[in-house]
Amino acid sequence: MPCNESADNSAGGVFQLLLLSTAGYRSAALLPKFDLLFLQTLRLIFDASSTVACHVNGLFYRCEINQGKGLEQEENPYGDVVDLPVIGKLEVWIDDHNQQKMLQESLINDIDKLLADKKSY
What we know:
The chain has helices spanning 31-47, 50-53, 100-117; strands at 13-21, 56-65, 86-94. It has a single domain (13-67, 78-115), classed as Gyrase A, domain 2, CATH 3.30.1360. It has a three-stranded antiparallel beta sheet, with helices on one face. Helices cover 32% and strands 23% of the residues. The mean pLDDT is 75. The chain contains three helices and three strands, in the order βααββα. The longest helix is centred in the C-terminal third of the chain and has 18 residues, at 100-117. The protein is of the alpha+beta class. The protein starts with 12 loop residues before the first strand and ends with a helix. It is elongated, with a radius of gyration of 17 Å.
């Protein structure tokens, strides 16, 4: 089990899946869609076969707002906070690094199927 919020402290590992990246314009409007996708991914893991689900120690929603280098010097680099570029990703902590490839492929395939089934994303 990871200690001190560091995946390096476990016998497993960590991988990230980039799900959303925006150039900025009204990025905040896309965040509810990412929230929904994150919840659906949680369901995928809970509904996954035991050979997949038993290896997942943690699933984290990472939403990073990138203000850009040097932009802090400008008076108003973005007209509004909702215009800041956003990177949305899932971070998956696993208990056995030998299973990482299988887990990644399984999760990516399941997310692809989910997105194909739900064109509303």
